[in-house]
Fold these 4 entries.
Entry 1:
Amino acid sequence: MNNGTLLEVNDITVEYVTQGQRFAAISDVTLDIAEGETLGLVGESGCGKSTTGRAIIQLPTPTAGHVKFEGQELTGLTHNEMRQIRQRLQIIFQDPVSSLNPRRRVKDIVAEPLIIAGNKDAADIDRKVREVLNAVGMDPDITLDRRPHQFSGGQCQRICIARALIMEPKLIVCDEPVSALDVSVQAQILNLLEDMKERYGLTLLFISHDLAVVKNISDRVAVMYLGKFCELADSERIYEAPAHPYTAGLMATIPEIGDKAIDSGPALAGEIPSPLNPPSGCRFRTRCPQAQEKCTAEEPAFRDIDPGHQVACHFPLLGE
Ligand SMILES: Nc1ncnc2c1ncn2[C@@H]1O[C@H](COP(=O)(O)OP(=O)(O)O)[C@@H](O)[C@H]1O
Ligand code: SF4
Ligand SMILES: [Mg+2]
């Protein structure tokens, strides 16, 4: 393990069976996240972002490949061993309202991870629940005895974040944490995550279908298409000079950074192919304005085009 590497994901593949056919929802995904870093993961709906996030926390264990967290291999651990580790490896989801049990009170919802972990000290539990609710900007005296339906979507996401924080995790997988919220509330939750990151020394995998959302929060950004990574680089690099035609196409759809996008022709025309039957060669070729013969015949390797900048394309864009 490198100095400071918290998570190492090597060549993971997750297969599902649908309509009697086995297919790879993600293939050969490799990434690492340094302690304290935020890695953004973007791509259109269905490209495998949630599958990647869930495979990291072994829900379910990937079909192939390796996941190391704090130097420990997670694939192959027993259910009980994994339960211990999951305390330090939390996940928050897109729809905060449905990820909270409607029949339980907030104090029980937020305390649940502590209780599962075997904490029986009522005073300690109460103190910790109050502390995390305060941290996420919810007044414990007003919140503790209420149930989720008495709160807005943004407040419910704050409660979900409090529940994730109570175990003092190292890594939080944030799976589209603001996508279900009103635009005005999105910024508040993003700011809260940044504050919590600082205060609790967190490392984040931040998933979104929206490049604009991950822009400010991420140190590096990975772009995914049809189950595979197509580009990974520092945030600035990816937004200033995307090298993969798919990244450039996504960029062109964001109004405020669209002018900066490289002229890659019409942005993202055409349908996303089915993952049950991905195109030969480069899986983006059916939508790529740059596609050439080689792209049909040969799959591009995910390779370094510069230190720290990886791209899966035979003809990467050169920028400027
Ligand atoms: N439990 C499942 N069974 C079968 N197919 C699934 C399952 N979960 C996701 N998929 C499929 O796997 C692909 C990736 O899905 P997902 O990881 O949810 O994408 P994203 O989060 O990027 O929208 C999609 O084609 C989706 O339909
Ligand atoms: S390999 Fe070819 S089809 Fe694929 S992104 Fe690059 S230019 Fe486009
Ligand atoms: Mg998803």
Entry 2:
Amino acid sequence: MRYKNPNYRKVRGSHILLVSCGYCKTGIAEYQKVGRGNLLRMYENRIIKGSIDWSRKPRVLHCPNCGKQLATRITLRRKNKKAYRMIRSAFNTRRVD
Ligand SMILES: [Zn+2]
């Protein structure tokens, strides 16, 4: 995971998830998850690092290894936040902290 996110901000009461490709198991990102429940979207400023170059702001996230689509970039209107909406069943998560 060579791409660190310079905009990452630590949030209290969070934990860290390792997000990996559901097809080939390649690690995609370390992500700071707040609250319980499944990962539906990844907020951009909570991505810690990953194997994708976030600075290029990809509109679609593809696995860098097998090329499968894992997520699409969205803007949340209410908060004007950028996030990636994860495609269900295309990824796995594992708590690592
Ligand atoms: Zn893959």
Entry 3:
Amino acid sequence: MSADPRAPLRLFDLTGRVAVVTGASSGLGVAVARTLAAAGASVAVVARRRMRIEALADEIGGQAVEADLLDEAQLDGVIPAVADKLGGPEILVNVAGNIFSRDRAEDEPPQAVRQTLGLNLVAPLRLSQLAFPHMRAAGRGAVVHISSISGRVGIPGIPQASYAASKAGLSGLTSELAVQWARHSIRVNTVAPGFFRSEITDGLFDDEKGGAWLRRNTPLPTEGTADDVVGAVLWLVSDAGRFVTGQTVVVDGGWTAR
Ligand SMILES: NC(=O)c1ccc[n+]([C@@H]2O[C@H](COP(=O)([O-])OP(=O)(O)OC[C@H]3O[C@@H](n4cnc5c(N)ncnc54)[C@H](OP(=O)(O)O)[C@@H]3O)[C@@H](O)[C@H]2O)c1
């Protein structure tokens, strides 16, 4: 044990590490990118909305990588583009995700099911595969996937069968990659948020009935924000989480504790 009581705080420092953050044009991805950069990492921010990621890259001194993660060629180009400009990534945070159908399970169109799995599950797996050689060469690495409490419990009133399946899939992927890659000191974890405010949930939070429903189902009295989720991500990608791998960490204000 270190005699310096401040030593554990320094474990959050990311100086000298290259990080890739997807979904970095809004919501949680922006918050994660800013935090990792503030902790010292060189951060590549990935999304389709070029103006937004370019502005963020300017702000944090990082790299903007415009890519549609549902396009195979663009998906496969992300990690090489980062490696060329910033160096091989040691940190990958898969934040990009979406719900493509609001239909009940029995009516979800097959195309929406494929898109949901493609963006929420296949893209994180593919980016992990492509980041792996760089992490192995560095002798360390950390991957964090962003899933959802809907990968763990059903959410009454908001049908999301394929979304739930894709998010639960991330937890299975997490334990398997963690075990396969542990010998290279590459850690793989998932953060499963409950509801927090973002472009996709603002309407729900602002709606009178929606807001009341969220408050009724969330034991903690405060409203969730992206900043409430970022701490878990920083912990898991940094040396502060160096003995944690294969886990799904739930950050939900107590939603699933009931
Ligand atoms: N908000 C919540 O309450 C909540 C709860 C649980 C889990 N989550 C999860 O948390 C993550 C972030 O959610 P958020 O609420 O912050 O969402 P958001 O603000 O809607 O952000 C989604 C991000 O994904 C990117 N994206 C979407 N489709 C893409 C594509 N085809 N290719 C590349 N990037 C794409 C978007 O960028 P472009 O549109 O610019 O491409 C955007 O940056 C998601 O995985 C979501 O499932 C959210």
Entry 4:
Amino acid sequence: MNEVGAHESKLYSDLAPLYDKIFGKIFYTRLRFVIEDLDIPHAASVLEVGVGTGTSFPAYPHHCDVTGIDLAPPMLARARAKIRKNGWNHLKVLKMDALHLEFPDNAFDYVMAFHVVSVVPDPIRMIVEAKRVCRPGGRIVIVNHFTSRFPILGHLTEALDPVTRRLGWRTNLRLEPFVRATQLTIDRVYKISKLSLYTVLVGRNEKNTYPGGSVKTQPLGLDAKENPRRF
Ligand SMILES: C[S@@+](CC[C@H](N)C(=O)[O-])C[C@H]1O[C@@H](n2cnc3c(N)ncnc32)[C@H](O)[C@@H]1O
């Protein structure tokens, strides 16, 4: 395993004792919706990168096989305790860097990245790794905050980036350039509610995707209905 000195997991090591109390309930509501909506089939193999304390765990159907990875040992310790306490045989966690996954190519049917794209130092590299370990035609599912497209709000959050970056996350990630740079093929983009700060991207893994990435359909997108986007 690579030794990683990344600061991005330091914050979460410090936060681990409070993480579930602060974020657990809000994050879980969102993740339960996203995971249930995927209707994950029997025996599917799922990788969740940056799994943290395992906020999402209760939402996974017991008929799939889930591996969570994270860099912060105190977060992983909490995830492990939940697995033990609930006797969840379909779940396991490992300490690993999302930027250097130690899995063979095409190992998973689904790769999930929940609230982690803006935390890792190199989001593009993370998606390159996700695509590598996801089988062709598999799903790459991302939940993240992206900088608002409303000019004033967008510039304001971008202006905060140097501050939040010191703490361990970025606020200058814009959706369209992210999709273009990762060459993701996005089948659906939506928000759980109109006011949600978080966007859900459901991508399909095409190993040799179109240059620039693409969005195929956007059935649930509030934005999408008003303003269909092509990346
Ligand atoms: C905001 S938390 C999200 C945790 C969980 N996905 C959730 O939704 O509650 C971000 C997580 O990403 C982890 N992380 C940061 N950089 C990472 C990396 N390079 N590889 C793996 N995990 C990383 C942090 O340790 C932290 O647990």
